[in-house]
Amino acid sequence: MASNESLAVAVPSPQGRYVPATRVGSTIRTAGMTPRRDGQLLMTGRVGVDVDVPQGREAAAIAVRNALVAARSLVAPGESLRCAEMTVYIACDSNFTALSAVADGASDVLAAELGLDGLPARSAVGVYALPGGSPVEIALVAEAQLLPEERATKERASRRGPNPPLPEEPARNERASRRATP
Asked: C-alpha distances in angstroms, 129 versus 94, 135, 174?
């Protein structure tokens, strides 16, 4: 899905001095997104201590939806979003090892939204604490790609060149012919 219409939430408001996402060329990077709605964290705590794995998966699902909304806000008409990389930070203690199980909550959302071919490379990183006491934080790196019909239109235009030659005026051709004839 290429538009913001697929998700009924607004682009998350920054919780500090940053922007939710940036675009340079076709590359889009999101800020770290936490499981917030209307600026409020929906859960806090460390996974495996205060938050169990199913709750951590749900937190990851909410956070990645926020990241998708932020990324899609920078996708132009005629483009689609292709996620290249996802980093999932999970607040936990040093004995917690089910990081991939928590990160799968975010991957499940991306698979549902973008299809299995839309899954990015992923890192799941355990950390001691995250902003506001969030159990997870997710950052995406994505690319805005032209939709196939837009790509074909641009390719046809580039083959023609920037300005196709205009036909010469007939009167001008006749005058030149008369001068060249003895």
From this structure: 12, 8, 82
